[in-house]
Design a protein that fits this description.
By secondary structure, the protein is of the alpha/beta class. The protein folds into 2 domains: about 5-205 and about 325-345, TIM Barrel (Alpha-Beta Barrel), CATH 3.20.20.70; about 215-315, no CATH class. It has 16 helices and 11 strands. It has helices at about 5-10, 30-35, 50-65, 80-90, 100-110, 120-130, 150-160, 175-185, 195, 205-215, 235-245, 245-265, 270-285, 285-290, 295-305, 330-345; strands spanning about 15-20, 40-45, 70, 95, 115-120, 135-140, 145, 165-170, 190, 220-225, 230-235. Helix 4 links the parallel strand 3 (about 70) and strand 4 (about 95). The two termini are about 15 Å apart.
Length: about 350
């Protein structure tokens, strides 16, 4: 067992550690810091316009000469333009929060990018592997944001046994012991979100970081009241209110958020409707679930950008209860590597 895995060669990185593309969190500063420290930083593009994504890519390239990635949404109306931009800018990795379309995978690979979708079930891993993706990021139920119900310790070996491409483990990782455990299961690296959110280079407001640091492993819950999909977030009074909200108030809130998002992103109503209908078709959503999709970006923005502890939604893995500091990204990665090496040394005795 070694910390240098085939994934490192595939990505062109020193260590098999990936920073996930968290909306409103994974910006140029965090992504570049991760790549400079030997991991793979990933920009969160879903909350950016095409022009903002172009600027963010240029910003990352001004901060690091190391490989980095961009996280995409398959159902974005301009996803094809985003793919072409990434090819033109020679981005190393394209990651997807949802299953990508086969034509997008083909175009990205032809353009020289490594394609890594995130999945939460064995059948999803098998499906994207058939498309020809280069690796899969497997997130167990402990992970923050959109998540499934199967814990990492069960999902990870399932997927490793089902596909013959590199597997990246996510959900519950924060230290070197976890990295070694993931390697023992057959993964070739780990991905972390909450751990990287709670670093100096994260642009999340200090008050929000302190809020996270005060939580335990029991202070998260999985709710479908944000956007209709299972979503692991910190338990707050606002989330409890969402949990108890009736159908009418839920729809009215979602409609307000849709209008707010249109204003913020300078998006065309026709594009938003097209995106919503695409999601409805792809994921067999009800009209209500389609409308609720507007909640996620605005709730997260209230938390991660505006720092609102009263009206924001805080995506978080259960691992939040294991984190009690705000180190620099380089310190996080150095610490994980040293602890992993020490753990491997003990196992070899």
């Amino acid at each position: 067992m070694t910390l240098h895995t085939p994934l490192c060669d595939l990505l062109g990185v020193r260590y098999p550690i990936v920073q996930t593309g968290m909306g409103w969190v994974a910006g140029p500063r965090l992504a570049a810091a991760t790549s400079n420290a030997g991991g793979l930083g990933i920009l969160a593009a879903a909350t950016m316009t095409l022009d903002e994504l172009n600027d963010a890519i240029i910003d990352v390239k001004s901060r690091t000469q190391q490989p980095f990635g961009v996280n995409l949404r398959t159902d974005a109306p301009d996803v094809t333009d985003r793919v072409e931009l990434m090819i033109e800018q020679r981005v190393k990795v394209a990651s997807f929060a949802m299953a990508p379309r086969a034509d997008l995978v083909e175009r990205l690979k032809a353009g020289g990018l490594v394609v890594i979708p995130s999945i939460g079930a064995k059948r999803h891993a098998e499906k994207v592997a058939e498309m020809g993706v280069d690796a899969v990021l497997v997130q167990g139920g402990e992970g923050g944001g959109h998540t499934g119900s199967v814990p990492t310790t069960l999902l990870l070996p399932q997927v490793v046994d089902a596909v013959d491409i590199p597997v990246i483990a996510a959900g519950g990782f924060f230290d070197g012991r976890g990295l070694v455990a993931a390697l023992a299961y057959g993964a070739q690296g780990i991905a972390m979100g909450t751990r990287f959110l709670l670093t100096k280079e994260s642009t999340v407001p200090d008050g929000v970081k302190d809020f996270y640091l005060g939580k335990t492993v029991n202070d998260t819950l999985v709710t479908t009241k944000v956007d209709g999909f299972p979503h692991r977030v910190l338990r707050t009074e606002f989330v409890d209110e969402l949990q108890q909200a009736g159908r009418i108030s839920t729809m009215l809130r979602a409609l307000r958020n849709a209008v707010a998002y249109k204003r913020y992103a300078n998006a065309k109503l026709t594009d938003m409707l097209r995106e919503g209908l695409a999601m409805r078709k792809a994921y067999d959503l009800s009209f209500g679930q389609m409308l609720m999709a507007a909640n996620t970006p605005m709730f997260l923005r209230a938390a991660m950008v505006e720092g609102s502890l009263s009206f924001g939604v805080f995506a978080s893995g259960q691992v939040v209860g294991m984190i009690d500091d705000l180190p620099a990204v380089s310190d996080v990665i150095e610490r994980i590597v040293k602890e992993a090496e020490a753990t491997l040394g003990k196992l070899n005795v």
